[in-house]
Amino acid sequence: MPAHFRRLLPLLFLSAATAAVAQREGGGPPADDPFQRPEAPVSSIGNYQSHALQGKVLTIRTTTGATVRVQPWFAPGAGFSGEAYRVDFYPSGSPAPRDSSISLRLQRPITAFSSAPGRGQAITQQPKLQQSAASLRVNPQPLGGLLEVLVQKSPLRISFMRGADTLLADAGGLYTRQANFATATGGAGVSFRLNPTEHLYGTGSRALPVDRRGRKLTLYNVAHYAYQNGDPQLNTNLPVVLSSRGYGLFFDNHAPGTFDLGATEPNVLRYDGEGLENLTYYLLVGEAPRPNQGSADVESQPFQQVLEAYTTLTGTQPLPPRWALGLIQSRFGYRTEAETEGIARKMRAGGFPIDGVVLDLYWFGGTKRQGDFAWDAPNFPNPMRMMRRLDSAGVKTILISEPYVMRTSRNDALVRSRGLVGRDQKGQPYTVESFWAGPATLLDMFRPATRQWMWEQYDRLKRDGVGGWWFDLGEPENQPFDMVYDGGTTRQIHNAYGQAWASILSENHYAKYPNERLFLLARSGWAGMQRHSVFPWSGDINRSWSGYQAQVPIMLGMGLSGVGYMHSDAGGFCVGPYDAELYTRWLQHSALSPILRPHGEGVPPEPVYYPEPYQSIVRRYVRLRYSLLPYLYTLAHDNTITGAPLARPMNYEHPTDERLANLNDQYLLGRDLLVAPVTQPGQRRRNVVLPTGTWADYHTGTPVRGGQTIGASAPLGDIPLLVRAGALLPMAQVGPNTTQAPTDTLYVRYYAAPGVKYSESKLYEDDGKNAQALAAEQYRRWALRANNTGTELQLTLGTELYPGKGYPNEPARRTVQWWIPRVAAAPTAATLNGQPLASSAWQYDAATRTLRINTLQQRGQNVELALRGVRLLPTETAQPDRSPVAFTLGAVADRSTNSGTEVQYQVHTPGQYAVQVRNAAGQVVRTLFADGTKPGERTLRWDTQNDQKQQVPAGVYYFEAQGQRQRILVMR
Q: Among all residues, which ones are annotated catalytic?
């Protein structure tokens, strides 16, 4: 334990209540931070006293005795635009003892210059310093760098300048809080000025709008059972925030803390870290946001560049096993071998591809056997045979693991006697009496002996045939205040716990099995979690429309925090009743999200148990996902290379478009797909806000002018899905799973559109298994290009920069089938790689106006197709009705009530809107009036009275407005 932890420990215990964060099943959420105390008053850093510039490090001493260091960490590299600066604050004047960062991959600044492509470069020029009586000005002149560092002397304030523009400037600057251990929390912090119009993103997993501006947010991981939309604090709270102005801030401290993002002072961003004796933050820099310069599709990429810088610091996600992008079926839980194998067979027989099955705590015998790490023999008598059978069918077995060891576990005595668990103040094993499953100990993930013992358990099970892992309860869910670990007290290690746990698996796995990719489903983590192959999910979500509505902003917030695979328990986990429409809408969204994993308890989460038409709708969307796997896998590759999330907020590619700055019910899946889930019950039409450029309907190819809001049809069987005009989508034939899918044909959908002359997309391919594929160049990188010259349409599948050398089991030859919708006439002639192509190679369907061309590709060879005489259909003058929806009637809070309930609504166009309450006979019993003065989401409350203020009788009633209806049951 570090020395300063030992000094603080007795004082912490003086004020500690021994209550734990009790999270029992169905018991409701605990406090956001049950041990948080008021903040102590702020003490300023003081004024400048002296400075030294040594190499590229500027060190400043202040009149309070504090030290501040500012240094560039890396500059843009070849093919990489982000840069980073580090600021260290030592209130005592010198660094206090500190463990190495749990978040950083790049622990030292880059010092060697390389001309090869890479993530960041050294800064080769020596900084220049200008000094006046009032300030210091330092320009490190990085390669392509944009920033100067301006230091105001009195009071000491630091600004980072991008040319004449102030990119980031201190408001109150750096400060400390002196702890009063009886009443107040000490630590260190910093505040910055905010531009009045900038938007703030990231901060991890929160059921809040994607723009976090105006909120005060806690940095303390918690488990909120059955949470719904609006919950500000969940399982993974991350100390990183991105600005729409082209910068990000990463605070490399895992202490509990807060982000005040303009809540207390509208134009001030404040970070507070509890108990900090050092404060370290990184300024991550991208280019300035700017609108396109004459092209509808090309804008600056500040979000991308900031995420590149962040993941250069903290690490990118290793390539996933390809099967992880398939359907992973889960529930709480499969109790026997027969049930586990049976669901895999039933899904396959029902026409559902499936790649994984997840076993909850019944695999080891249930709640009282947590910590056993051994199969429950009566119900799983031959698990190795079961896993072999599943694996031969292309289905991986994923096992749950928890950090608690029950007092009833067979390993209880072992972990206690070896000191593998958290301890009390006297150094004795600490029993968590209030854990929801019963008394248990909590493993010390920071202790080397614990880490070794846990890896031995995981490795033994892996050798038996386990294909992936599920780490649950890792916030930790229940962690008494007065526990002690090798890393410190509960308060000091809480946020780092899940990270330490994940690193046990990832570090040992890649050391022993360097060629095998890892899949780790984890509920909690910290900054840098992505480099441990963590595929997080959003926690124990309420099975409700409100719970579902939270999932898009949670997914996008995590993506802008460097974690690209956030997903949900598709269909909802708990509490809510069976709702086939909700399940269908949720699965439509999840099929077009980073990970597809239906999971739940109380209501079947498997689509095969739903009646028609719901089952067929879900099947179609699951199969759509599998057909898009080449596109999704390419996005996974991009995430590994650049940190780009798979699912992106609408302004990711269009950062200057204010219409897109805070959209929470639509998103981009990669660059080329726009997904607009239906998140309200009964909704059959919804508004979609389109970025600039031209877009096309995925199914028909019909072009739609961008830069506007359209009303899109959304029948139960479909959600709006649009494609960027000109996109070339690589697709595949659907098989029973990802490993057994046919590889003899690559399909490419080209969404041609008038006015889009040239376009380019990407395709990445490898064997889907080898963790060394990139390092060994065992892959193919392709560029898909389309060029419409006016007389000829040229379609190319060509090698990209660093194309790779091929991969195991790469097809020796395959068909590349090009699919082009909205073609007015078949080609009159065609060539393939410069040679005439017979007309039998293409098929033109005059009824659907669709052209398909089959071309042959030899392994590793380019495909260059030229079509003459192809004419595209002009944009129709008679378009489908795309008038925007003016008013949306949303979900009812309580669908059955005896005293009253609330109904959501959203005003899109200001106006007067009445919501009528009708009985089952269609008679109006009450008229409610919505606030339509300005756009926004609001609620109306009905007290179950009629217009005469009389209680209505029991029965079925409906809220109705603008042709929309929501059902409610009144009980008496």
A: 472, 475, 540
